[in-house]
Amino acid sequence: MELYFWLAACGTLAGVTTVLFGFGGGFVVVPLLYHLLTHMRGPETPAAPHAMQIAVATSTCVMIFGSAMATAKHQRAGSLDWAVIKPLVFAIAAGSVLGAATAAAVEGSWLRWAFIAYVSLTVLDCWLRPGFLLQPAREARPARARNALTGIVIGWIAALLGVGGSVMTVPLLRRRGVSMTGATAMANPLTLPVALAGTATYAALSWGGMASLGAGYVGYVDLRAFLALVAGSYAGIRMASPFIGRIPDQVHARVYVGLLIAVVASMLIG
């Protein structure tokens, strides 16, 4: 029971980061479940060799709830620009199918280091390349059809690593002149196609006769962890919603990068 209390507590943190940073919960859920499966439940369990796949798949499933609820909150707050969002939605969904299929096919250790490498590169890019930390907000340039390829790449990486769309969409939109409030808000509806397409793909692949991971799993999704995380995520989203649009822009950008650094550090410890 104590284990699921901590899962719910971490789900609350995931809910807060979903609303305020567009993370969709993946940056919190993936490291948490990875450590849970490899250390707390022990290496002898059937799930341990698939720890990273389970973490990614469960994270992707949790994101359906978190990103949908956060999208509704931001819609009511008036912080979504659907003209920027709509051109990317279907391309991101297509890329998510490819990403989930890739994650199911590779070794968990490779997936872990890919997660660490990509988030590390994102931190360096946000910190060193002009336009993320210091760029004053200006009117966003509308997305165009050529962004279909960008959307496929975003969906592929987001579903492959279980991190939602934020890791690519927030820097992308930020450099298009969108404020941090707007960029993190729009990451949530762009995470929803990742979550839906990715989860459906993980479920379809599990029908192919993968080894049973024991009771409480549907494919790679840990149902008990999912329920605890969703309960916590609901509380976190409700708690964080009053702060939408109230964080100073440059503080918002720096905290975003700081959270990415914390995620990388937690994965390296494992």
From TrEMBL:
Main location (coarse class) = membrane
Q: Where are the transmembrane segments?
A: 7-34, 54-72, 84-104, 148-170, 190-213, 225-245, 251-269
Q: Mind listing the UniProt keywords for this protein, alphabetically?
A: Cell membrane, Membrane, Transmembrane, Transmembrane helix
A Pfam family of the record is TauE
Would I find Translocase among this entry's keywords?
no
Question: Which InterPro entries does this chain map to?
Answer: TM_pro_TauE-like, TSUP/Inactive_protease-like
Q: Which cell locations does it reside in?
A: Cell membrane; Membrane
Record bears the keyword Transmembrane helix = yes
Q: Provide the Gene Ontology terms for cellular component.
A: plasma membrane
Q: How does it sit in the membrane?
A: Multi-pass membrane protein
UniProt family annotation: Belongs to the 4-toluene sulfonate uptake permease (TSUP) (TC 2.A.102) family.
Q: Which protein is depicted?
A: Probable membrane transporter protein
Q: Organism source for this protein?
A: Variovorax guangxiensis
